[in-house]
Structure formats: C-alpha cells, structure tokens
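FAQ

Q: What does a record look like?
A: Structure on top, sequence underneath. For example:
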C-alpha cells in the first residue's frame, strides 16, 4: 500500500490536509485492476475535523478493497466557500491521478459525516456550481459518482444544526440567500449521484429530519437512494464501536455497527469495479 499526504491551499490563506491510502496492484492477481475510491470528509460542525470520523473510516474502506482518501478541510474562522473549493480540489486530484493510483474514475464516492456530510453533499448537489465555476472548476468534473452520508447536516431551516451554519457563514449567518443556497434539500438535481445515507432516530444534535428532507428531494428527482434509520444512539457515532468511541467509552452503539457492511453491499450493486 502507498500512503501520501499533501496540502491543498485555501483561498483565504489556510491549507487543507489531503491524505491518500492506495492499495497496490499485484502481478499475481490483477495487475491492471482499477478500484473504487472513497473520499472521507469528517465532521466537526465546521469548527474542527474529527479524528474519529477520519482514519478509522479510511481503514474500513481499505478493508473492503476501496482506495481511501481523507480531507481535513479548513474550518472556522474560514468561511464559505473555502472548504467547498478544497473538496473540489481533492476530487480533481483523484480523477487527474486515476491512472497512477489505479482508481476507477467513474466510481469515486464522497463520504461525509455530520458537517462533513454537508460538505460532501454540497459537491453532489448544485447549489455551489456557480461558485465552483467562478474559481475554475467544472462542476461536473468534480461531482462524485456516489455519496455516503452519515447523520449529515443538510437543512438550514427549522431542523438546522445552527452551529454548523454559524461557523460556515460567520457574519453572513442570517443572510437568507446564503442560507437558501446551503440548505441542500433545495439543491438536489437530476445530476445528484446515487446516495447511501444513515442516521439515528433519537439524534438530539442534528435531527433525523435532515436526512428525511434530503431523501424526499432525492426521490423527487429520481436519484437512487438507500436510507437506514437506526432506533437508538446519539450523534457522531462513526463506526459505533470501541474503535471510534469518545475516550473509548461513549458512542458504542451495537445497532449502527452494521452500516459499513450495508454500505459495502450498496457499493457492489452500484459500481462494477468493486472487488467481489
């Protein structure tokens, strides 16, 4: 396996960390194999990026036979669209280096958690397309081929996780036009990619209504979606195991521990290049 880390310059002078975990091909198996890739975007309310939703997720994806990348994007005091442009650049890099990294360029999934789910879904929807184009990106070229959204921040409306939008927008946090742009259930379009999404019903931080609004919008546009709602557990569970529990104790939730395997099966059904 190859590992690398590089920086992505933010437009405000900050820098994001972009890490890659590339599975080597073998002459004994399939020397020309191209694998799906998963770009992991951890959450943290646009104020930090969580360790618990970064490398443990990447390692799980590697175990499934997917290349994995992690984006630790710029957070407050950086404001929109700094993180969006960093995510776009990460997607561009994966596709530009697809041959070198043995990536199937048509099977790149962005995996976002909480506020990272908002950033991931911002790439998959169209609200930021004009901003991407303004900064030299072809929105279609950096749009993922699929999305894995875990307890995502979606809506800026009544069920909003207000802290995420306050951190993302700063002085513009009450700007109706910006809030409309960033309420992603309103930005779903026919080009939005197939989506796997999960949430816990009792989540008292980011209400499950965020996921339900997004699922409704996906269905209205005919976008394939698989959704799993779990009956117990709070917010930010990551894998729901001791590996990702807060201080090794809080956040162990047996019922959600199945989601990675459900996601792997979704990948098998969605992308031909998955290892079977």
């Amino acid at each position: 396996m190859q590992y690398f880390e590089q920086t992505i310059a933010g437009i405000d002078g900050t820098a994001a960390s972009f890490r890659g975990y590339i599975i080597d091909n073998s002459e004994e198996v399939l020397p020309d194999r191209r694998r799906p890739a998963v770009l992991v975007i951890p959450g943290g309310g646009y104020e930090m990026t969580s360790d618990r939703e970064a490398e443990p997720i990447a390692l799980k994806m590697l175990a499934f036979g997917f290349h994995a990348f992690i984006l630790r994007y710029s957070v407050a005091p950086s404001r929109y669209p700094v993180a969006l442009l960093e995510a776009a650049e990460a997607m561009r890099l994966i596709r530009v280096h697809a041959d070198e990294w043995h990536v199937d360029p048509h099977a790149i999934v962005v995996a976002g958690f909480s506020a990272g789910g908002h950033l991931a879904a911002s790439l998959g929807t169209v609200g930021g397309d004009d901003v991407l184009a303004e900064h030299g990106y072809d929105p279609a070229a950096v749009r993922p081929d699929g999305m894995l959204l875990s307890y995502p921040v979606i809506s800026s409306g009544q069920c909003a996780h207000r802290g995420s939008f306050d951190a993302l927008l700063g002085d513009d946090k009450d700007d109706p036009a910006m809030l409309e742009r960033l309420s992603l259930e309103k930005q779903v379009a026919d080009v939005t990619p197939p989506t796997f999404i999960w949430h816990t019903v009792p989540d008292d931080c980011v209400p499950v209504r965020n996921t339900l609004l997004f699922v409704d919008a996906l269905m209205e546009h005919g976008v394939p979606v698989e959704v799993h709602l779990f009956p117990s557990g709070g917010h930010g569970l990551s894998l729901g195991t001791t590996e990702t529990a807060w201080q090794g104790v809080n956040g162990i939730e047996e019922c959600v521990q199945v989601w990675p395997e459900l996601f792997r099966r979704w990948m098998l059904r969605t992308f031909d290049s998955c290892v079977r």
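Q: Is there anything notable about this one?
A: The mean pLDDT is 97.
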